[in-house]
Amino acid sequence: MMLRQALLATTLLTAFAAPALAQAQTAEQGAPNAPAQEPAFAGQTRAPLPAETPQIAIETIADQLPHLWALEFLPNGSMLVTTKPGAMHIITPEGEAGPEITGVPEVDARGQGGLLDVALAPDFETSNTIFFSFSEPREGGNGTSVAKARLVTDDAGGGALEDVSVIFQQMPTYDGDKHFGSRLVFSPEGHLYVTVGERSDVEPRVQAQDLGSGLGKVFRITQDGEPVEDNPFVGTDGALPEIWSLGHRNMQSAALDGEGRLWTVEHGPRGGDELNKPEAGVNYGWPEVTYGIEYNGAPVGDGITQDAETAQPVYYWDPVIAPSGMAYYDSDEIAPWQGAFIVGGLITEGIVVLHMDGDQVAFEERVDVGARVRDVKAGPDGAVYVVTEARSGPSSILRLSSEQ
């Protein structure tokens, strides 16, 4: 039933998309990697620029920081950040970084691994509990794991993690250094969505289609790491009960919209980055159905972009933006962006603003910040905060606001 609903939604998008949109000027001007591939419906890629774009002021809040991966705002306006090598710091609203927080478990920081996302528990103001994901070193390899802990701060601007416990492990363990994901997003009910990758290599990535494997999935778990009782595959023989959706490649962007629904953006191959609204039990195709091509120029699998058994992406990019970090914007500081998704771009070195019309992308806008964007957050002051990274150098935190 859920798959039929997803396919019906795609049909409706096809029927009601405005054909004129495809003729307008688009944010993406580069040549596609797979020019023969056709979108499944109008507006699925290369949406037009909005008629007017706001003037954005960009201010550097903090720079010369360690290689950052994620940012989360604390109730007092300070920022809790993770670093890829495995440290956490608290950064004041004025941009001062405190000492390293103690108690962080060991991470495998090779390749794309490291200390990854961080999220505050819904009751953080009373519990001081945080959740974080990391590439966990294990016997025989590594994998994405989720831990929770109490954050205890001190007067020096640092602190410690206490009562640290790993509540969830992506299985199977694999000896690789790519496609760990991951983002952590709490549902309105207080359950935790966990996005992961499929470990990139040709052999393990096929497990994105395997309900007995934790590769290439969105999970939905309780705050104790247990499967939520009404997850779609609870009671299915051979299926992991924590799975929410399947057929994903490498998701480093996730956020709830204004209705509390989960949206993700995942890295595609050479072409084929995808915006999805993952729904319970739905298969999103990877690696059997995808836009784009292999990095060596060959087709991915049989080169199939559409199949009745898998859901189409809401939107895709070819060439890619290399997405990382995502926020739903619901403030009047940058009024034209209200109701839009803000997505970080590593290759595009800026942010991508997706203006929505219902569940379809109506317009795409880009803001160049001159650096790889690893994470994006909407701040308590209504500004957009952007975490940048250098491949082998320091990070910065930028504040984007409406230019007065």
List its traits.
single chain, 404 residues, mainly beta, Neuraminidase, four-stranded antiparallel sheet, 3 helices, 38% strand
Question: What features would you describe in this structure?
Answer:
- With 404 residues, this protein is mainly beta.
- The chain has a domain at 66-247: 6 Propeller (Neuraminidase), CATH 2.120.10.30.
- The protein contains three helices and 23 strands.
- It has helices spanning 2-16, 124-127, 202-205, and strands spanning 56-65, 68-73, 79-83, 88-91, 115-120, 129-138, 141-153, 159-169, 184-186, 192-195, 217-221, 243-246, 250-256, 262-267, 273-276, 315-317, 323-329, 340-345, 350-357, 360-368, 372-378, 384-390, 393-402.
- A four-stranded antiparallel β-sheet has the order 1-23-22-21, with no helix packed on it.
- The longest helix is centred in the first third of the chain and has 15 residues, at 2-16.
- The radius of gyration is 20 Å and the shape is globular.
- Residues 1-22 have low confidence and may be disordered.
CATH class of the domain at 66-247: Mainly Beta
In CATH terms, the superfamily of the domain at 66-247 is TolB, C-terminal domain
Biggest sheet descriptor: 4 strands, antiparallel
Strand order of the largest sheet: 1-23-22-21
How far from one another are the termini?
50 Å
User: What is the N-to-C succession of helices and strands?
Assistant: HEEEEEHEEEEEHEEEEEEEEEEEEE
CATH topology of the domain at 66-247: Neuraminidase
Shape by Cα distribution:
globular
Strand content: 35-45%
**Mean of the pLDDT scores?**
94
Unreliable sequence segments: 1-22
Helix content: under 10%
The beta-strand count equals 23
Class derived from helix and strand content: mainly beta
Number of helices: 3
Just name the CATH architecture of the domain at 66-247.
6 Propeller
Rg value:
20 Å
InterPro entries: 6-blade_b-propeller_TolB-like, Glc/Sorbosone_DH, Quinoprot_gluc/sorb_DH_b-prop
Region (Disordered): 27-46
Keywords: Signal
Organism: Devosia enhydra
